[in-house]
Amino acid sequence: MGLLEGKTALIFGLANKNSIAWGIAQAFHREGATIGVSYAGEVLKRRVDPLAESIGCDFVEECDVSKDKDIAAVTAKAEERFGKIDILVHSIGFANRDELNGPFYNTSREGFHLAMDISVFSFVALAKAFQPLMNPGGAMISLTYHGSVKVTPNYNVMGVAKAALEASTRYLAYDFGPQGVRVNAISAGPIRTLAAAGVSGFKSMYKAFIDMAPLHEKVTIEDVGNAAVFLSSDLSARTTGEIFYVDSGYNIMGVPDMSEE
Ligand code: NAD
Ligand code: 0WE
């Protein structure tokens, strides 16, 4: 029997087959969950529809999380379809490309607001919208990156947004605790997704990551999917407000080991 048998999961942030959201959706499907997915805009529908279909998911809803009315609409549709849900996954992040380059102090007021709105506030807003729909024993999960805690060159305003996302995870965990709903974040190592494409210096950073990490293995969307299964299932019943690293151990290192190779 699957670990998520009888549970319903809504996954936000599916763009294509490389998306972390897709690794999570496949792992949830394998474990017997009923799945609904949401994507950002019309142009992604063409890619998302066939993926959803392949895992027997027919709840596929567009939702631009910068729009209150989109969040309200997807919440109403989810209630109509599922009644209650058990799992909410937020796999969304965005900053203007020109904010992910050069010195952090060049961050614009507008760019700062946008990154915080899409990458952080949207999780808080979705949590609020779905609170009445969450079954006790349920779980919410967001995706973060270690650039929140330590400087990653060029990650810039996204690092600040991820720090706020991780703090939001703790405050939401406190709010939802009495309701029996857990809130955790997965901090994934670098993965070649759409959101990583064309990021300047990603290739060299990727190599440095594998060299430095104790396991010397790249992180895959399957790895993240399996961690999400754990954090959504009753196996993690007493874990909330945590930042759960899926990074081959990279974050524990202080100094690279120069003796190898
Ligand atoms: P991705 O591009 O596949 O997913 C990002 C998603 O955010 C896309 O589906 C995009 O449509 C969505 N999005 C952007 N603006 C939106 C809006 N206004 N409304 C709704 N959705 C919107 O890339 P990914 O790497 O799978 O990213 C998923 C999450 O994982 C992000 O939070 C990212 O920061 C995080 N993360 C990524 C990595 C990595 O190296 N790829 C590492 C750690 C954490
Ligand atoms: O969270 C992320 C992706 C963040 C991201 C990436 C983009 C590129 C395209 C947010 N917004 C945009 N906007 C775009 O227009 N990651 C953890 C992957 C990532 O992004 C980086 C990284 C890593 C790692 C950016 C700079 C440096 C390292």
TrEMBL record:
GO terms for molecular function: enoyl-[acyl-carrier-protein] reductase (NADH) activity. GO terms for biological process: fatty acid biosynthetic process. It comes from the Bacteria. It catalyses: a 2,3-saturated acyl-[ACP] + NAD(+) = a (2E)-enoyl-[ACP] + NADH + H(+). This is Enoyl-[acyl-carrier-protein] reductase [NADH]. Transmembrane segments: none annotated. Substrate binds at residue 95. The active site is at residues 145, 155. NAD(+) binds at residues 13, 19-20, 64-65, 92, 162, 191-195. It is an enzyme of class 1 (oxidoreductase). Pathway: Lipid metabolism; fatty acid biosynthesis. Belongs to the short-chain dehydrogenases/reductases (SDR) family. FabI subfamily. Its EC number is 1.3.1.9. It comes from Candidatus Desulfolinea nitratireducens. Keywords: Fatty acid biosynthesis, Fatty acid metabolism, Lipid biosynthesis, Lipid metabolism, NAD, Oxidoreductase.
